[in-house]
Automatic annotation (TrEMBL):
Xref: InterPro entries: DUF4349
Transmembrane segments: 258-279
Keyword annotations of the record: Membrane, Transmembrane, Transmembrane helix
Presence of the UniProt keyword Transmembrane helix in the record: yes
Chain ranges of the DUF4349 domain: 71-279
Organism this protein belongs to: Mucilaginibacter gossypiicola
Name of the protein in its database record: DUF4349 domain-containing protein
Domain of life: Bacteria
Amino acid sequence: MKTYFFLSISFLLVLTSCKHDTEQKARIQDVVLSPAPVAEEKSIAAADQLEDAGTANKPPAPNPSITNTAKKIIKEGDIRFETGDPKAARQNIVSSLKKLGGYLAEENETNSGETNQKEYSLKIRIPSKNFDAFLSTLTSSTDHIDSKNIHIRDVTTQFIDVRAEISNNKQLEQRYLQLAAKATKMTDLLAIEDKLASIRTTIDSAQGQLNYLSSQVSYSSLDISFYTRHPGEVNTGNGFAYKFKTALGEGWEVVQNLFFALIALWPLMMGTIIFLLLIRRWKRRRKANITS
């Protein structure tokens, strides 16, 4: 009986030992098969090599938000016309602008003595979608248009290029930020900061250009100039009434000029009067001496 008991204990010990050896071999095998850790540190030299090779500035995969851009159109123009009532014309323009969401950006008024006319110059900005409606209203309210020029520019390609430039530089900025987080040398950090400063300057410049294009696309520009001649100074024909009215006006101007010319010659007139009085007095005395 004791012999069977000892044999059973011995058999259990052997099984436990074999199982322990198998687990150790499995753990060792797993450790050996595990890949070695990859070094995470990258120097600025690696980034410079990427940039020199053109990888850093390589365009990214097509971005739907950039390639699928709606058509971008800039509308500009100028119009010039004559009106009999410039104040009313200006008021109509301002009222129409308010209704269509536009505004008056610049206004100038000039009076020309040579051509006898008063001229107004307005520079207006109006939403592009309402540009044609405003222009139609303006032309329909004028009797005579001297000139009208409308320019349309398609800047879709330029718009896409600028947006792509911004996107590429932002991706490049992220790469350098990742390198800055892993850099351990001060020289590498300074070099990365210089690169980042240059990239951010490029992004700001491109963003400003994009904002300007967006503003030009959203709001159209129109230069408006209108003028009026002064009543009474415009040649309305060669009829008798016009000539008679002109003669009366010119005669009155001659009388006025003569009157002011005489006033300007008052010293000469006074000297002449005194001279005549002295001669008259001398003649009287001479006559009295002869008589006596």
